[in-house]
UniProtKB/TrEMBL annotation:
Keyword Ribosomal protein: no
Pfam families, per the entry: HTH_1, LysR_substrate
Originating species: Streptomyces inusitatus
Family according to the record: Belongs to the LysR transcriptional regulatory family.
UniProt superkingdom: Bacteria
Residue span, HTH lysR-type domain: 7-64
Protein name: Transcription regulator LysR family protein
Transcription regulation among keywords: yes
Entry GO terms, CC: cytosol
SUPFAM superfamilies to which the protein is assigned, alphabetical: Periplasmic binding protein-like II, Winged helix' DNA-binding domain
Length: 305
């Protein structure tokens, strides 16, 4: 029975590899088996299910309609098996464990450091895999069971994603602390931003979309001199030049060489949320991390959601 189960699982993985690559040669290389062996195993699978799963008539190999349906269930079966294996290995006392975390980029500048420090202090046996990615990739990764937890923004989410509000993130125009306007006590009318040269995050960042929408709503066309895909690069640029930017106030708070200038009307606040797959298995490590995030948010005084 065990041998039969192992063979079936191998069949599923082989089929998914061919479907992904659309080519037996590349799939065989990826699986590190010979192409004849791979072809034979796929034919065995097709004989077992009684239908043709792959269309081999064109230049590339494609799934048949039956194959498309079968692959959906195959992916789900392998995902559920991986979750079951993690559940078996899960240790409730948190002496060991692992966590797969993804965050949207701005959080690496002010939130991830405190979270990892606290996790290591409380649960040094837990290993953590952290990735920075866009929110749509975070949600897709959660649904595919490639991630355990995501930190992003509340709003509309893919079906199957659950969001738990953490805190409210506020943003401001930011200049270097050496700039004369850093000492200004009044809010800056948004219309005056059109007279300033800005360095902004690139379009991959949710913060950039949020900023662009704000300026468009108030009919302001900013003079964008620099676009950067790194928060740290942006901080260094603003710290050393007359350029201004837009950043979360929590980032500015951690960098004394930056000064926030409130805008009038204010940039809209955003709700930061913890994301997970609705039906996904929650390991002891994931449950502990959720509690830890809430504690760190409270200790650092972020505005409640």
């Amino acid at each position: 029975m065990v041998g039969s189960m192992a063979l079936e699982l191998r069949h599923l993985r082989y089929l998914l590899a061919v479907a992904e690559h659309g080519n037996f040669t590349r799939a065989a290389e990826d699986l590190r088996i010979s192409q004849p062996t791979l072809s034979q195993q796929i034919k065995q699978l097709e004989r077992a299910v009684g239908v043709q799963l792959l269309d081999r008539t064109g230049r590339s190999v494609r799934l048949t309609d039956a194959g498309e349906t079968y692959v959906q269930y195959a992916r789900r079966a392998l995902r559920d098996l991986a979750a079951a294996e993690r559940a078996v290995l899960d240790v409730a006392d948190l002496s060991r464990g692992s966590l797969r975390l993804a965050v949207t980029p701005t959080f690496t500048a002010y939130l991830i450091g405190p979270l990892i420090a606290e996790l290591h202090t409380r649960h040094p046996g837990i290993t953590l895999d952290v990735e920075e990615m866009t929110q749509d990739r975070v949600e897709a990764g959660l649904l595919a069971d490639e991630l355990d937890i995501g930190i992003a923004f509340a709003g509309s989410h893919l079906p199957g994603i659950t969001a738990t509000a953490l805190f409210t993130e506020t943003l401001s125009l930011v200049v270097g602390a050496h700039r004369p306007e850093a000492a200004a006590e009044r809010a800056l009318p948004v219309a005056e931003v059109a007279d300033r040269e800005l360095a902004l995050l690139s379009g991959d960042f949710a913060t950039r979309g949020h900023t662009d929408a704000y300026f468009a709503r108030h009919r302001v066309t900013p003079r964008i001199m620099v676009e950067a895909n790194s928060i740290q690069a942006l901080i260094e640029i603003v710290r050393r030049t007359p350029l201004a930017t837009v950043l979360p106030d929590a980032v500015t708070h951690d960098h004394p060489r930056l000064s926030p200038i409130p805008l009038e009307p204010a940039l809209p606040a955003r709700t930061v949320a913890l994301l997970r797959r609705e039906s996904g298995y929650r390991s002891a490590a994931a449950r502990a991390f959720t509690r830890l995030v809430e504690d760190v948010v409270r200790e650092r005084g972020y505005l409640p959601a």
